Amino acid sequence: MSLFTDETESVEESPGHFRGNISGNWSVNGNPNGGYLTAIMVDAALRKSAKKRAPIVTSNFISRGKPGPAEIVVEEISHSPQFQRFQMRLFQEGRERVRTLATFSTEKESCLDERYETGPAPLPPRDRCVSLPDLPAYSLFRQVELLLDPACAGWLENRLSARSETRGWMRLRDDHPYDMTSILLMADSLPPGILASRGMVAWVPTIELTVNIRNLPKSRWLNCSLRTRFVTCGLLEADGEVWDEKGNLVAISRQIAQIRTG
After folding, report:
1. How far apart are the C-alpha atoms of 215 and 195, rounded to whole Å?
2. For residues 197 and 163, is the Cβ–Cβ distance under 8 A?
3. How confident is the model at residue 56 (pLDDT cuts 50, 70, 90)?
4. What are phi and psi of 174, to 5 degrees?
5. Are 48 and 17 in contact (CB under 8 A)?
6. pLDDT digits (tens, 9 = 90+) for 87-134
7. Of 54, 24, 13, which is closest to residue 251 (Cα–Cα)?
8. What pTM does this model have?
9. Closest of 181, 171, 189, 257 to residue 226, by C-alpha
10. Percent of the chain as helix, strand, coil, to the nearest 5
11. What does each C-alpha distance from 126 to 120, 209, 222 come to in angstroms?
12. 3-107+125-258 adopts what CATH topology?
């Protein structure tokens, strides 16, 4: 098994009650990545669900999680021939940290209706992209390799852009095969787009994250982008896309986050 599998698994101690552990290997400044926390919760729910695709997942981050033991409570909300819906709650030290709603469906054998009115971000070849410098507090990027489009990487040298967008190639560094839970992680692994226009702001904590998974990728490298267009009273939105190298849409996401500077 891979590190990601080991560190998202939990044990069902009683019906619907799971015991797991949040690893420090998927963190940004000591804060566990929101996609990683969501993956732990969805992994637990998948073991209760008769349907094994998770095309719609929304997490609300109620209080800050941290590395260490966690309890996950999984509750089925509804069940129909097409969809099965669950609510998952993650607790640490008796306090609810994350609440997630997920809609599960049957695995599709074929897709008869597919139409894209846009395509992947036009990224340069990987040998012309910018690797992140060693950031000891960003353990996430020891597990996820990121190569930034140079046009979006100026913030690393305090060269700012008028456009709040991050684009780049990403892949898991180990051989873990992409699945529903690892796509949740990858959809939340790009640095915030607001860094391109504001520089290294103190913190951009996510309040809500929604990921729609459309396909499992057919390549190891993923073409990822994250764009912010509006900042209002300290809140911003970030719209993300994940594509594979074959031109298949893997996932779309939307985050609502705070921007905390100083």
Report:
1. 29
2. yes
3. very high
4. -90, -170
5. no
6. 999 999 999 999 999 999 987 766 667 889 999 999 999 999 999 888
7. 54
8. 0.95
9. 189
10. 20, 40, 40
11. 15, 28, 11
12. Porin (2.40.160)
Whole-number mean pLDDT of the chain?
94
Q: Give the HSE-up count for residue 61: Cα atoms under 13 Å, Cβ half-sphere.
A: 22
For residues 102, 216, 34 and 94, what is the CA-based torsion angle, rounded to 10 degrees?
Answer: 50
Lowest mean pLDDT segment, chosen from 57-61, 79-83, 165-169: 79-83
Q: For residue 209, what pLDDT band results from cuts at 50, 70 and 90?
A: very high
Specify whether the backbone of 234 is left (phi greater than 0), alpha (psi in -120 to 50) or beta: left
Say how far apart CA 63 and CA 34 lie, in whole Å.
11
Q: Which residue has the tokens 């100026």?
A: 154
Q: How far apart are CA 80 and CA 98, in angstroms?
A: 26
User: What residue segments make up the domains of the chain, in order of their start?
Assistant: 3-107+125-258
> How far does CA 52 lie from the centroid of its chain?
18
Quick one: pLDDT band at residue 37, thresholds 50, 70, 90? Answer: very high
**DSSP class per residue in 178-197:** P-HHHHHHHTT-SPPTHHHH
Report the sign of the C-alpha dihedral through residues 66, 144, 45, 208, in that order: positive
